[in-house]
Design a protein that fits this description.
By secondary structure, this protein is of the alpha/beta class. It has a single domain, classed as 3-Layer(aba) Sandwich (Rossmann fold). The protein is built from 13 helices and nine strands. The strands form two sheets. The protein has a seven-stranded parallel sheet, sandwiched between helices. Helix 8 links the parallel strand 8 and strand 9. The longest helix is centred in the N-terminal third of the chain and has 29 residues. The radius of gyration is 20 Å and the shape is globular. It starts with 11 loop residues before the first strand and ends in an 8-residue tail after the last helix.
Length: 357
């Protein structure tokens, strides 16, 4: 089964492990309940945004490759909900969810993906290179593992400026086989940098089941560098948030790096053109995908059901949140389609730094 290999299940943190002071009661109201609604709303926005991207890619096509994180929303939202706007974050080629979870705007992200000058990077980056420095989003990266060293450098800068910032690096289990993963953990550990390594372990490396190319458990690699390790259910947003909260607090106290592994699964293919590339073949079964798509496993459905059970989010409230997310996505499509195409002259202007007089 593609989604299970190389997972350390022995130290998995459960969703309620760190919530003793945030007890849940039926019909609970107040700041904590509002926070739960915000988590759900952010997950819904990511889900609807990427569903629209999938449909658009199929119907009319989009510039460049489109890699979706549908099924992994809890990982992005759980981690980013613990970050301040000044904290740094690097992402992956599958980075739309990270961008939105960290506070990026869906309008400017869609315009970027559409290749428009109104995009967050003026249409120069596209789907795999969305960034917003004003929100601490250093950028997604088309190079597998490309964000690891960048986040480590940001962590060094954060340590030097002494403001208690953290630097989060999202990467996949496939990227953990890149040498820069070990190098970044080594430097972060030696210098006690405020780096948080978040491995989104979906058991898949592009078109390959990770267990066929990976020896041992990925979490053991982080343990070898002496950093705290948490392996969590990546489809449980509370479990992810609990682990991330502890890691961020360690960074603020100057206690060095942490490793979080979110065990999750991507429902869509490596990219939206996968069926054409594989010509009908596959590296996983329909039954496996359906099992992860089930309501008791899907991160959005699970959290919705939990909040309903706790009396925090009624069916009517959920319908309202769901509709609001859809409307934001509709507006983002309109914004993207109305924009002017990217100015191709910028390709050359942005390649070089203008010398100061």
């Amino acid at each position: 089964m593609g989604g299970e290999p190389n997972r350390d299940s022995g130290s998995t943190r459960c969703g309620g492990c760190d919530l003793a002071s945030e007890a849940v009661t039926k019909g609970q109201a107040g700041p904590w309940a509002d926070e739960q609604i915000e988590l759900l709303e952010r997950m819904l926005l990511i889900r609807h945004a990427e569903a629209r991207l999938a449909q658009t890619a199929k119907d009319v096509g989009l510039p460049g490759g489109v890699h979706l994180s549908i099924g992994q929303e809890a990982s992005a939202v759980g981690v980013c909900s613990c970050l301040d706007v000044d904290d740094w974050m690097t992402s992956t080629h599958r980075g739309h969810g990270h961008f939105l979870a960290k506070g990026g705007e869906v309008d400017s992200m869609f315009a970027e993906i559409w290749g428009k000058s109104s995009g967050i990077c003026k249409g120069m980056g596209g789907s795999m290179h969305v960034a917003d420095f004003s929100r601490g989003i250093i950028g997604a990266n088309g190079i597998v593992g490309g964000g690891l060293a960048i986040a480590t450098g940001a962590a060094l800068a954060a340590q030097l400026d002494g403001k208690g910032r953290a630097a989060v690096c999202f990467f996949g289990d496939g990227a953990a086989n890149q040498g820069v993963f070990m190098e970044s953990m080594n430097v972060s550990s030696i210098w006690k940098l405020p780096t948080i390594f978040v491995c989104e372990n979906n058991g898949l490396s592009e078109f390959t089941v990770s267990s066929t190319v990976t020896a041992g458990k990925l979490s053991d690699r982080a343990r070898a560098f002496g950093m705290p390790v948490e392996v969590v259910d990546g489809n449980d947003v509370r479990a992810v948030r609990s682990a991330a909260k502890a890691a961020v607090e360690r960074c603020r106290r100057g206690e060095g790096p942490s490793y979080i592994e979110t065990v999750t699964y991507r429902i869509h293919g490596h990219l939206e053109a996968e069926d054409l590339i594989l010509a009908g073949g596959s590296y996983r079964t329909a039954a496996e995908i359906d099992a992860w798509r089930a309501e008791d496993r899907d991160p959005v459905s699970r959290f919705r059901a939990l909040l309903a059970e706790e009396g925090i989010c009624s069916a009517d409230r959920f319908a309202e949140l769901d509709q609001r997310a859809k409307e934001k996505v509709d507006a983002a499509v309109t914004f993207a389609e109305a924009g002017e195409p990217a100015d191709t002259k910028l390709v050359f202007e942005l390649m070089f730094v203008e010398p100061k007089a």
